[in-house]
Amino acid sequence: MTIDPETLERAAALARLGNVPASAGGLDQDMAGLLRAIENLSEADLSGVEPLYSPMMEAAGPRPDEPGPGAEPDELLNQAPARAGRFFVVPKII
Description:
Layout: H1 5-14, H2 27-42, H3 73-77, E1 83-84, E2 87-88
């Protein structure tokens, strides 16, 4: 399969490769090879092949939301680089 210059330039634009000249050092041949490989895959008979993974086959649902043990506020605040009373001190953004 040969790739015409318009198709090559359009594919390069879609891939955001910038301005690619039509004779871009064998890029047209590489792209033709990729298209041949995709054509070979599309001809394969996959009627009896199960998909390897599907999120719809997932049996486990969300776990119940139950409270667990937590850390004490003073324990967490002692690890902060700066604090003011019961609050963390963070740099001003605006």
